[in-house]
Amino acid sequence: MFELTNLTRRYASGRAEVLALNNVSLKIEAGEFVAIMGPSGSGKSTLLHILGLLDRPDSGSFKLFGVETSSLSENRLAALRSESIGFVFQMFNLLPRTSAISNVSLPRLYASRESVKRGKDPAALLEAVGLAKRANHKPNELSGGERQRVAVARALLNDPSIIVADEPTGNLDTKSTKEIMEILKDLHKQGKTIIMVTHEEDLGAMAERVIRLKDGEKFSDTKSKSEISSSSAPSFPDLSSPRAYLGISRVKSYLSQAFKGLLANKTRSFLSILGVLIGVASVITMLALGEGARADVRSTISSMGSNVLSVRPNWRASRGRDTARTAFSRFTTQDAELIRRIPNVAAVSGVVTGNAQAIHLANSKRTRVLGAEPGYQDIFNLPPISGRFFTQEETISRRRVALIGKTVKEELYGDDDPLGTNLRLDRVNFTVIGVLPERGATGWRDMDDEVIIPLNTAMHRLLGKRYLDYIDVSAEEAYLNFVRTETHTMLTRVHGLTGQNSEMIEVRNTAEFQEAISETAKTFSWLLASIALVSLLVGGIGIMNIMLVSVAERTKEIGLRKALGAIERDILLQFVIEAVVICLGGGILGIVAGSLVSSLLSSMAGWSMKISPLVVFLAFSFSVGVGLIFGIWPASTASKLKPVDALRYE
Asked: Which of 174, 434, 452, 626 is most enclosed, with most CB atoms within 10 A?
């Protein structure tokens, strides 16, 4: 079964090199009970680790079932351990957070279907070692002898042909030692090959063969009994059989262990989840704020009307050219009339703006006043929600009539009907003839905090302006560029502007302006989200730190799992899932917290907040992504540990 020829193993100890095994050659047949003995540092544990496929020799030949093990990959060695070898360790190596029966069942997680079929029932094994009533107890609730019996039951789960025991009674009292040795002797009688490391002579005497090592070399090899237990020599097992637990079953097991780990370290888990929670809540709040701002911008843009041209003086173009200022003295109502005559123009309105103190009875407020023509209503789609817009005749005759925005109505009139009432703007009395539809806000400016009056009234009775501030023009979309070109050409000709001076008149397509505003709002939204992502990344770094600590704390567990048949992918998946579970918990709680904060900001600060399904999805995805990204490194570190090094870790 085992055939070792000139086996050598060296270890690095600081700068020095330790020769643990030196040209060791031996054979162990199927069904033998072999005790490997020797003083500390003799190499007996190193030899046992190589026999158990937990370590590889530096040189020499090691055949198991007639197959050279040096030709086997790490994954095939893991499968061979799972199929053929059961381990009993001096320190028991039980998972502390799981019950006795769960510990016994652990090898099945990495076993093949054939191995599970021929394997034993975990409950029956616990009953066989006298622990049927202790099946649901955790290791810290069991005595040392009971823990080792659980370890023996675990070693027998897949019905292996070989039992490897490393000082199995080293931490037990006399009674427990006797019980464990009786179990091993009984297994030997059943045909199992038993290989045991011990330093106690009385225990070595119970084996039929004793191999003694000294300074890494075989010192003696004696048989205390003439016959070995009858057992047919097993052949190399079929490692092509697929695993019994794949996909969902294994993930469920890892999820269960992840939750148990979180509950076992509540404070550490809470702090890890808190970091993700704050990050996700920040992302949701910031994105909700950005989405709310974008919604306000879209609302404002829609109120600005479509297919609109804004004709404005461009004083920036006149810098350094004083003659240009003399040549162009702003727009007049005659300019608006000339634009109105351009073909395909739908509506035109000259506009002047200013501020005034609006007073009604005992209520007053500072508000924006806009003087316009009747066409302003059509350009910006502003049909009054009550009352009417002023007429061209009222504009020409400078009538003192006004339309008020929603904010002005609420602050000056409350729930009262303003139509027909007197509204005083500075020292001039006006009659309210209409209430404008709600237009929303643009950044800091409330579009509903506004009073619109006839253009001539504003220029000559209230604001005292001789020139228009700008002119708004609307046209069908198909003719918009034509009207834009004709307007600029006509105005530069009328005002005698040529060459670079023609740049002093700017005809701006508000659609382009609207698009720029929309893109700016979008950029602002993602900028806020990016800032929030920083906190999520900080939380992710915290998780990575916690997972690295977890890997260090559970190094022996990793070694145990690898000894039982786990491969690198299994360990990697286990720790990644644990990191993702933390982030999922933080993500879900972060979504709730972010929604609550957004709601509070909306109600208390009056901010426009909009939580869309996309925002929730993005935040949740980011939290899972953080778990994957920051869990990969610790998980990869864990998966690359050699089983023998992990089991030796202190």
From this structure: 626
**DSSP assignment of 617-630:** HHHHHHHHHHHHHH
Domains of the chain: 2-245 (3.40.50.300), 261-299+516-648 (no CATH), 329-494 (no CATH)
Rounded-to-integer distance, Cα 287 and Cα 339, Å: 43
Amino acid letter, 324: A
Q: What is the dihedral of CA 534, 539, 544, 550, to 10 degrees?
A: 170
In degrees and rounded to multiples of 5, residue 463 shows phi and psi of -95, -20
**DSSP-derived 3-state class of residue 311:** strand
What is the C-alpha R_g of the chain? 43
The Cα 145–Cα 508 span in angstroms is: 89
Give 552-576 pLDDT, tens digit per residue.
Answer: 888 888 889 899 988 888 888 888 8
Cα separation, 198 vs 557, in Å, equals 23
* Separation between Cα atoms, residue 618 and residue 532, nearest integer Å: 12
User: What is the CA 349 to chain-centroid distance, rounded?
Assistant: 53
Angle at 123 between CA 120 and CA 127, to 5 degrees: 100
Model confidence at 324, in pLDDT bands (50, 70, 90)? Answer: very low
CA 642/CA 650 separation, integer angstroms: 14
**DSSP conformational letter for 69:** G
Cβ(88)–Cβ(145) below 8 Å: no
Tens of pLDDT along 478-528? 898 899 999 999 999 999 888 888 888 999 887 666 666 667 767 777 777
Tokens standing for residue 145: 């002898």
Hey, what's the torsion of the CAs at 345, 346, 350, 351, to 10 degrees?
-130
Instruction: Please list, in sequence order, all residues whose beta carbon lies within 8 angstroms of the beta carbon of residue 597, skipping any fewer than 6 positions away.
Output: 281, 284, 285
Q: State how far the Cα of 490 lies from the Cα of 73, in Å rounded to an integer.
A: 85
Residue 443 — very low, low, confident or very high, per pLDDT cuts 50/70/90? low
Residue with tokens 């009907």: 417
